Amino acid sequence: MYLSKSDFKVASSCPSKLYFKKKRHPSLMNDNPYLQFLADGGYMVEKMAKLLYPGGIEMESWDNPVQAHQEALALITERESVTLFEPTILDGQRLVRVDILNKKGGLLQLIEVKSASVDMSECEQRSPVRGKRGGITSDWMPYLEDVTYQYLVLSRAFPNLQVRPYLCLVDKSKNATEGTTCNQFKLSRSINAKGRKAWAPEVEYLGDLESLRKNHLLAIVDVMSEVQELADEVDSKSAQYLASISGDNIVRISAELSSKCKTCEYRTKPVEGSRSGFEECWGALAAQEPHILDLYRIGDVGGRNNNLVGELAAQGKARMTDVPIDKLTTAYSSRQKQQLACLVQGEWNAPELPGLLKRHNRPLHFIDFEASRLALPYHEEMSPYELAAFQWSCHTIQDSQEPAVHKEWLNDDSMFPNFAFARSLREQIGNEGTVYVWSPYEVSTLKEIRRQMDQYGEKDRDLADWLDWMTEADNPRIVDMLKLAKDYYVHPNMKGSLSIKDVLPAVWTTNADLRERKEFKKYFGVNEAGKIKNPYDVLSPLPIGAGLEEVVKEGTGAMRVYQEMMFGESANDPEIRQQYRQLLLQYCELDTAAMVIIWRHWAATSI
User: Residue 477's domain spans which residues?
Assistant: First the structure.
């Protein structure tokens, strides 16, 4: 059994996870749409990086590590100069597949490609992976430990060669040209026997190679000093991890229980006949309800430098009610105490909330945006990870007794969409009434569009003035419903979350009158057990192409579908394009309908 670089990365986040990974425990990462969206961008960046090395050899034999290593070893030994893509290199049971390995005489350049970004125009005086005081920044530590592990394996596998490590990153100081936009990189996935797309796609470059090599969007950063700084620690950690998988039986390295367990990818739903990774760590305490990890901001209880969760777990305590009240002393304590009270009293709707909502000026506009930031931009002149706003939805209430009126906008033009997005929104919500959002995201998006107007020389004084006004600090016209939920509303079923995806089903299952309203009827459904469905689970999947079905239930899915609709394999197929369009429209409409449902529930006593 080998310790791969991905094994090392997983174990570094929590050593117990190495055991779960090797044992193939169910993981929430397996079908995580956000990770796949990021991975797609990463595959494009990796393809761009490889194209900078003409004549590079794509290595195979992944299913036979020894053979793959021998093939790579032969090429590196026999040739004075050679570039290998994803060669397998072994050092005993340590295994790495290097993104790009470039040999020049006695030098081996180890190039680890990441879709993470840097702005090289701001890094003239220091390495982009170090802070102002000279230390390695925490954000870069996982990447540097990864490349350090590879460096150690290569150095031992090739003791007579000098190994030099680099990170190949996306440079935000550069602007996309015709040959470096994402539509020049065609992603295609094979379909398995179960009708599911493969996780890893094939990537084909459609543009001009010479132009790409002159105007690529990458920065190659020498990280030799950082690797040398981390080498001893990484070597020690990898030895510990390797020892746990080297015997006849894999041994789980026990990790300290803490609030970090809340977001563990192995905290999966129980499956009959087997235990989840979370259950293996927590034992009988995993089944405690309501669980301590579901207390709002549990990581802050007892102070940031204390592990109250671990202390209580060591005493056999893991219920939310086991948290000592005298430990709730932070700025979040009021909500935490209210959440505990709701375990007995049920839903809490602050008495002042209905009156507060009643004072908001009509009309009431409930808005939601969908936007994307890609490593390789959609359009020329855009910089990597620059925002492209492609959709909005708005429900408007004039009279509380009448159904909300829904309007929407979705870009289907090949041009940069942001200014058309802002103009259409301004036409819809104008200057009158209250604008409800959920989180600061919508305001920050409008701020970014205003900045882009200056950047791209967009001459529209009226639009610029409107955006300046809409994004003023503490603009009373903008009401953040997430903040209202934080200050005035608690439901036990929200389990400490303020996400609209958790507030909506809590409200929906509580208020039967809302489920009977004609304007919301299409979001009602029950499962096989007769329980009321989350409205997001009622959204209809639509057939896409050869027997596949898709449904968009969250923002990352919307980004992926928009990218596929505009720039993917089916961009020129009107029928499939229309299906993608319908998926986006029904999802974004529900996001603002959800806000209306929650508003009506909160305001019930005042309308």
Answer: 354-481
